[in-house]
Amino acid sequence: MKRVAIVNCVYPPEPVVSAHIGADLAAYLTRNGASVTVLCPFPTRPHGAAYPDHARRAQPQLTREHGADVVRLPSFTAPESRLLPRLWESYSFGRHVSDYLDHHLANVDVVYANAWPLPSQALIARWCVRRRIPLVLHIQDVYPESWLNRLPGAARALIGGPLVAMDRRTAHQATRVVVISANMHRTYVDDRGLPAEKVVTIFDWQDESLFENLPARQEVHERAGIPSDRFTFMYLGNIGPVAGVEFLITAFARASLTHAQLVIAGAGSNKQACEALAQKLGVGTVHFIACPTPRHAAILQQMADVCLLPLRRGAGMSSIPSKLMAYLLSAKPVLAPVDAGSDTAHCIGEAACGWVGEPEDVQWLAGKMSEVAVLPEAALSAMGERGRSYALENFSKAANVRRLAALVLAP
Q1: 3-205+396-409 with 209-394: one CATH topology?
Q2: Residue 344, SS3?
Q3: pLDDT below 70 — which residues of the chain?
Q4: Helix axes 83-104, 119-131, angle to 10 degrees
Q5: Rounded to whole angstroms, how far apart are CA atoms 310 and 243?
Q6: Calpha distance 236→15 (Å, rounded)
Q7: 3-state secondary structure of 135
């Protein structure tokens, strides 16, 4: 029996794709005879969510979930997106994981880590190297570059080099590095200097079964208390500093579409600012809905005619947002102001399921909203079905969890 430690920085009940990837992997491995222990923090995502069954305490909380032992560690948490607290959160989680491995799981056969960047990953990699235990390191975004884009030039120059060196060293210490996009693969081979065979691309996934046998659109509108007689643009996901939701609201206001509405479903540190912006601009047809569970997200997306995927300039160059997979599995066309060279733009173009424009270009997005809102329903439906076919081929749980499990069992 293979003994596997799964280190996940988020885990259900948190409604985050990485959380469910860890849970899906744990369930698959246990079904196939492995002994699995999951190490994760107490849940805090998204910002503002409460989990009374897993309230943070001074000692680890041990539960048995779907055949795996789940250990929630009392590490420091920082659900609000601020750089210094997030770095301390990462260090704290890595320290707690290393200590727990030392005292309880020193005889594991392999460690799979989808951990916070960069300190947490470095501490876990160092533990594995010292004990000669294989490490499969799952990278969800390229750091420190994703952080550095938010800092002024002087700060980037001062701390960029050491942080890149930390990430390079950690990646070289891992037995295998799993990345989620072609651009990330190029980064770790060309910039971090890893052998190409050591870096494996496995797309994140959504459970395709969640998008089957859904209620009719009219019913979902009625449940949500949102009019069904308007063309509906929808954004569903985290309302944080990188998401660019303020940009969507501004563009929608400029488009002045009397027959359309914008539905924003989610939570995050910028939600109040977005609500205030919609009120300031006097747009009464912007509706905010609470953050949904994955199943609820699939249901809510039934309301959409077109789904919106904005990213700030440079933010989408190294990963594919999980909301793209959900949009495509819902068979909805996607309107995406993202970098032209991003993997997101590539997927939308390859699937022929939407429109891509420059990030943060309010005039372009307002014009495209006006254009899209009068397209025939049949044209939108055909685009959505092309997107769903593409997602089932590339982003399905059935195919990708099997690939990841095989890598963990034979790193």
Answers
A1: yes
A2: helix
A3: 149-152, 155, 157, 291-292, 294
A4: 20
A5: 6
A6: 12
A7: strand
Which residues make beta-bridge pairs with 62? Answer: 71
* CATH assignment, 3-205+396-409: 3.40.50.2000
One-character DSSP codes across 362-387: HHHHHHHHHHHTTS-HHHHHHHHHHH
pTM: 0.82
How does pLDDT run across 184-217, given as a tens digit for each residue?
Answer: 999 999 999 999 999 999 999 989 999 999 999 9
Is residue 338 within 8 Å of residue 359, measured between CB atoms?
Answer: yes
3-state helix, strand, coil in the chain (%, to 5): 45, 15, 35
Helix axes 271-280, 245-255, angle to 10 degrees: 20
pLDDT given at position 180: 93
Q: Are strands 306-308 and 3-8 parallel, antiparallel or unpaired?
A: unpaired
CA distance 392 to 379: 20
User: Distance (Å, rounded) from C-alpha 341 to C-alpha 168?
Assistant: 23
Reading the block at residue 293, the tokens are 């569970």
The rounded distance, in Å, linking the Cα atoms of 410 and 56 is 35
> Kindly report the CA angle at 361 between 355 and 365, in degrees rounded to 5?
45
Residue ranges per domain, the chain? 3-205+396-409, 209-394
Q: Which of 330, 308, 333, 296 is nearest to 220 (CA)?
A: 296
Measured between alpha carbons, how far is 40 from 255 in angstroms, rounded to an integer? 44
Please count the other Cβ atoms lying within 10 Å of the Cβ belonging to residue 382. 15
CATH number for domain 209-394, candidates 3.30.2310.20, 3.30.210.10, 3.40.50.10490, 3.40.50.2000: 3.40.50.2000
Packing angle, helices 119-131 and 153-173, rounded to 10: 20
